[in-house]
Design brief:
lyase, amino-acid biosynthesis, schiff base
Length: about 290
Amino acid sequence: MSTHRPFGRALCAMITPFTDSGALDLDRACELAAHLIAEGCDGLVLGGTTGESPTTSDAEKGALVRAVRAAVGPGPSLVAGVGTADTRHTAELARGAEAAGADGLLVVTPYYSRPPQDAVAAHFLKVADATGLPLMVYDIPGRTGTRVEPDTMRRLAGHPRITAVKDCSYDLLASARLIAETGLAYYSGSEELNLPLYAVGGAGYVSTVANVAPRQLRAVLDAYDSGDTALAARLHARTLPLTERMMAGGLPGTVTVKALLGGPLREPLRPAGRETADGLRALLEELLQAESVV
């Protein structure tokens, strides 16, 4: 069973801060990145779904990686979201991310066009050949409309730079089998499955909720690694109310994170209402207060 962790265990899918005028706020991004690393994140995913990748330009994506790299130094892993529906464009973004100082690439399955599995495989293989960086396959069929089927994932695992998966497939059986059969490092992309996937050999997680509760999510993995699986289960259970409200409450995770941390969104996303934001704050405060009670 693989214990390969190319990017560490605890990764945050970081939001992209903007100014009130809608410009990229690199100062705030660097502050948030440094805070997340200090609070226990091993690395950050920049410019992914939570980072509002559909509404940030290629130049902004590169600027964000360069600024955060300078802010956090060479230690933490920086994975750049470069996925698009266009293979050529994705490869261009991958080369830009490499030049900007990224340690890895997050590449989502091409969306909307719904390519067949041979085309899905060809897409990832061409992007992997475009740089010298390790690549994390982002399997999220609920958003893309196309799953990376297990046989396709086995094929991709043969490429030396396709090393990891951000798993939002909601198929724990298939994920557990692929962890056992391949050298791929599986990262949970669904917070409610962080502990279950880790328990069957997963590498860790890439989490949106970690923007607001990085220490609490990492504590689950720390407890499991220490051998106290009962404590890990209790700590995991404590995170679930906030996870459910943030990730399954009808709003994108980007919106719910910014309801808690503040800051503008880019349209078509719009801010959460006051009642929703108040409910989120109450759940976060409850989680923070429970931290001292083992």
